[in-house]
């Protein structure tokens, strides 16, 4: 087995301090569905499988939603809608499984970028099980979406608006959503040896690209090595593609190489949350408050919300 982390931190490209808005002020609440103006492609290894994947994200018709289409080695194709009911619990990621058993994993960063950029309909074709992790951030997906452009479609855009608060809790972890006229996230995270971290802001294209998209997947190096060994011994794909090029490694009270953005870990938890909420299938209008949240709690909130239709309405 190769060394789990390189001994020298690779150079990380600088993040632009300011990203100009791509949308006029009036587009903050678009009334119509939208898709991409053109297709774009990305490729790279997955965080858990370590295997290279080629991905093509293309425009789709109004009402199609986000659809993952996996190309299998035997020539067959399997479609998996990006909806909460297809979600399957997998370690340290968000995964979807089709009705015929085909898995697509680590979809949360792309889903967050599409959601923040108000892309309602897209076809995501992939030739492997897992989407690329890149540098652990959502920046490559955002760049692809920006380059492709956004086109409004001749169909109304229906959003899920809260009528009353909904909340879930798992021990010290809590997650709630309350009525608001736009999607807003307030997140808190406390890690050992770090002061408490907080981030609050709206989820719009400019704020997402500047404040959340640069944040990377993270983890403590002392836990990564045992998980890699577990993956090797069991054959289960967990963190096989994790290294200091694809994740922010934490040692003691520091992030190796420094944080890209202030309080980077809590911002990444907010990024993942936006991607997981996108599996609702409609834009969410609500103020989400998160304390120590993760994928399991995110999906618990979505499931509870969908099980309580009196708590929301489509507008």
TrEMBL record:
<dbReference type="GO" id="GO:0103117">
    <property type="term" value="F:UDP-3-O-acyl-N-acetylglucosamine deacetylase activity"/>
</dbReference>
<keyword id="KW-0444">Lipid biosynthesis</keyword>
<keyword id="KW-0443">Lipid metabolism</keyword>
<feature type="binding site">
    <location>
        <position position="272"/>
    </location>
    <ligand>
        <name>Zn(2+)</name>
    </ligand>
</feature>
<dbReference type="InterPro" id="IPR020568">
    <property type="entry name" value="Ribosomal_Su5_D2-typ_SF"/>
</dbReference>
<keyword id="KW-0479">Metal-binding</keyword>
<keyword id="KW-0012">Acyltransferase</keyword>
<dbReference type="Pfam" id="PF03331">
    <property type="entry name" value="LpxC"/>
</dbReference>
<feature type="active site" description="Proton donor">
    <location>
        <position position="295"/>
    </location>
</feature>
<protein>
    <recommendedName>
        <fullName>UDP-3-O-acyl-N-acetylglucosamine deacetylase</fullName>
        <ecNumber>3.5.1.108</ecNumber>
    </recommendedName>
</protein>
<feature type="binding site">
    <location>
        <position position="268"/>
    </location>
    <ligand>
        <name>Zn(2+)</name>
    </ligand>
</feature>
<keyword id="KW-0441">Lipid A biosynthesis</keyword>
<dbReference type="GO" id="GO:0016020">
    <property type="term" value="C:membrane"/>
</dbReference>
<dbReference type="InterPro" id="IPR011334">
    <property type="entry name" value="UDP-acyl_GlcNac_deAcase_C"/>
</dbReference>
<dbReference type="InterPro" id="IPR015870">
    <property type="entry name" value="UDP-acyl_N-AcGlcN_deAcase_N"/>
</dbReference>
<keyword id="KW-0378">Hydrolase</keyword>
<keyword id="KW-0808">Transferase</keyword>
<dbReference type="GO" id="GO:0009245">
    <property type="term" value="P:lipid A biosynthetic process"/>
</dbReference>
<keyword id="KW-0862">Zinc</keyword>
<dbReference type="InterPro" id="IPR004463">
    <property type="entry name" value="UDP-acyl_GlcNac_deAcase"/>
</dbReference>
<dbReference type="GO" id="GO:0046872">
    <property type="term" value="F:metal ion binding"/>
</dbReference>
<dbReference type="GO" id="GO:0016746">
    <property type="term" value="F:acyltransferase activity"/>
</dbReference>
<comment type="function">
    <text>Catalyzes the hydrolysis of UDP-3-O-myristoyl-N-acetylglucosamine to form UDP-3-O-myristoylglucosamine and acetate, the committed step in lipid A biosynthesis.</text>
</comment>
<comment type="similarity">
    <text>Belongs to the LpxC family.</text>
</comment>
<comment type="pathway">
    <text>Glycolipid biosynthesis; lipid IV(A) biosynthesis; lipid IV(A) from (3R)-3-hydroxytetradecanoyl-[acyl-carrier-protein] and UDP-N-acetyl-alpha-D-glucosamine: step 2/6.</text>
</comment>
<feature type="binding site">
    <location>
        <position position="109"/>
    </location>
    <ligand>
        <name>Zn(2+)</name>
    </ligand>
</feature>
């Amino acid at each position: 087995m190769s060394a789990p982390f390189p001994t020298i931190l690779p150079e990380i490209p600088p993040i632009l301090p300011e990203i100009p808005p791509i949308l006029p002020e009036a587009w903050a609440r678009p009334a119509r569905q939208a898709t991409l103006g053109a297709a774009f492609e990305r490729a790279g290894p997955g965080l858990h499988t370590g295997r290279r994947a080629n991905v093509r994200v293309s425009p789709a018709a109004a009402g199609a939603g986000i659809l993952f289409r996996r190309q299998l080695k035997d020539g067959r194709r399997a479609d998996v809608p990006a909806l909460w009911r297809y979600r399957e619990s997998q370690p340290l990621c968000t995964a979807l499984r089709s009705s015929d058993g085909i898995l697509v994993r680590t979809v949360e960063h792309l889903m967050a970028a599409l959601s923040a950029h108000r892309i309602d309909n897209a076809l995501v074709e992939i030739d492997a099980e897992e989407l690329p992790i890149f540098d652990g951030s959502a920046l490559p997906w955002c760049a692809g979406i920006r380059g492709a452009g956004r086109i409004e479609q001749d169909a109304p855009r229906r959003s899920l608006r809260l009528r009353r608060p909904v909340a879930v809790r798992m021990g010290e972890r809590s997650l709630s959503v309350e009525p608001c006229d736009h999607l807003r996230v307030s997140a808190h995270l406390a890690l050992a040896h770090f002061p408490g971290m907080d981030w609050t802001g709206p989820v719009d294209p400019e704020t997402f690209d500047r404040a959340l998209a640069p944040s990377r997947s993270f983890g403590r190096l002392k836990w990564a090595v045992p998980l890699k060994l577990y993956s090797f011994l069991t054959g289960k794909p967990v963190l096989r593609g994790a290294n200091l090029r694809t994740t922010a490694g934490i040692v003691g009270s520091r992030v190796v190489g420094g944080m890209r953005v202030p309080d980077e870990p809590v911002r990444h938890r907010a990024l993942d949350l936006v991607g997981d909420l996108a599996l609702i299938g409609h834009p969410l209008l609500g103020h989400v408050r998160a304390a120590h949240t993760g994928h399991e709690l995110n999906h618990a909130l979505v499931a509870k919300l969908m099980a309580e239709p009196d708590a929301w309405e489509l507008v």
